[in-house]
Amino acid sequence: xxxxxxxxxxxxxAAMMTxxxxxxxxxxxxAESLVPVAVPQEPTPEIQxxxxxxxxxxxxxxxxxxxxxxxxxxxAQPHPEALSSELNCLAGAIYFExxxxxxxxxxxxxxxxxxxxxxxxxxxxxxxxxxxxxQFSFVRGGxxxxxxxxxxxxxxxxxxxxxxxxxxxxxxxxGALFFHASxxxxxxxxxxxxxxxxxxxYR
Length: 203
Description:
Layout: H1 2-25, H2 28-32, H3 70-75, H4 85-98, H5 103-119, H6 126-130, H7 152-166, E1 178-181, E2 192-196, E3 199-202
Antiparallel strand pairs: 1-3, 2-3
Helix pairs in contact: 4-5, 4-7, 5-7
């Protein structure tokens, strides 16, 4: 039985070899069909990293926080031995109009003097604003009364004057050009802003 299988296998192998030889000697097309053909391919483009310009975030410029409170800013002010005539006039107005009031109340008075000097409707200097006739009741004979310059009230007024001049703290009635004591009612036809301590402020 095994000899018959071996003989059949030999015949099958011989038939296969014959087929291969005939294919090799046949038409070129048949022979070439057995050879793998290399298909040209498009070159793979080199992948470049994306050209992304860095996005620079524009942060609005802002003044640094100079203090956490008006009291802290007052305490941080320098204590000059001598004041310019302009700062002396500004501090004098704050001293005589608002000494003993809150820091916010003193600053509100100081900022009115500053605003007037820049408005074009009043004299262009602090002393001009303070000494303008019939504006400040504390002015006597075109001069400031005597000031106790060693007092805490004066030192506080000087510090507030520097802050009002520099604009380093916003007044609660910023932009006001007029004020009067709350005990009087002049009947002004002006835009009322607010009352701060003992004064009412207007624009």
